[in-house]
Amino acid sequence: AEADTAVFDKTGTLTLGAPEPVDLHLLDATQSGIALALAQCSRHPLSEALRAALTAAGTVPQRVTLVSETPGEGLTGQWQGQIVRLGRPASADGNLMAAALTIGEAPEILIRFADPLRPAASVTIIELAELGLPARILSGDRPGPVAAVAAALGINGQGGLSPADKLAAIKALSASGKRVLMVGDGLNDGPALAAGHVSMAPGSAADASQNAADAVFLGSSLAPVATAIRAARATQAVVRQNFALAIGYNIIAVPLAIAGVVTPLVAALAMSGSSIIVVANALRLKGSTR
Fold first, then answer.
1. pLDDT score for 28
2. CB neighbours of residue 54 within 10 Å
3. What does the pLDDT average to over 82-102?
4. Mind giving me the DSSP string for 156-176?
5. Which of 170, 136, 163 is nearest to 150 (CA)?
6. How much is the average pLDDT of 150-163?
7. What pLDDT shows up at residue 70?
8. DSSP H or E run through 183
9. Are strands 180-183 and 215-217 parallel, antiparallel or unpaired?
10. DSSP string, 1-32
11. Which entry of 9, 115, 141, 189 is annotated as an active-site residue?
C-alpha cells in the first residue's frame, strides 16, 4: 500500500521468459528437419523453443550423426557427408536473440526468436502509473532487448546490470525517499527483491526469488501486480476506518458503562452490534480487486 515506485526485471518478469522462433517460414522441409535433429540434442532455451515449435508444426527430423555441443557456440553434426551447425550467428546483431543454421558451405540461415510480453503487461504498467507508481526496468539482459521492451511499454529501462548494480540502484531510490516495489524472477534478483520496500515474484520464479519476495503471483498475466496494490490500499483504508469505529464506540460506550447506564443486555447487544459493523465494513474488500 505504501509503494510509490515500481521496478521490474525484464526476462521472465515483464516477458514470459519463453523464446519463440519467428522465422520458421524461411526454412524448407529439409532445413527444418536438420534444425530439429540438432535442436533435439541440446537443453539450451533456444534449442528447446525451436524443437517445440518444429515438432508442433509436424516436422520430421533428418538423420544427423556425430552431434556434439560446444557451450556458448552451439551444435554441430554430419548430414549426408556435410557438416551442419546450429548455434551462435556469425553475422547477427549482438542484441538480437537468434540462432543460425548452416548446412555445408551454404550461407547461414538466421532464425530469430522473440520473448513475448506477459499478458496484460502494457495495461498493468499504465494502471500502476495511474496508481502513482511510475515503472522502470532494471535488467541484466543486453541493452538492446531491454530498450525494445521499455519502448514497447513506454517506460525507461537499463540493461547489462549485474546483481550488485541492481541492488545499488534500489538502494539509491530508497535513499532518495522512494518506496520501491521490486518485481523480479531470476536467481540474481534475490538481493534486489530483499532491498525493496516491498517485493513480488511470479510463480515461475526461482525458489530463491520467491523466498526473498513478500508476495508471489500465479499465472502468466502481470495483472496481479496492480491488483495487489489496489487491494493493499483498500485494506489499509478499511483497517483505519475500523480503528476509528472501534475508538468512537469505546469513547461513547465506556463512560456509559462506568456510569451504570448500560444494562448487561444492552452491553451485550452493543458489543455484538459493533462487531457486526466492523466485519461488514471489512467485507467491502471483496470487491477491491475488481
1. 93
2. 22
3. 83
4. EEE-S--HHHHHHHHHHHHHT
5. 136
6. 92
7. 86
8. strand 180-183
9. unpaired
10. ----EEEE-IIIIIB-S--EES-GGG--HHHH
11. 9
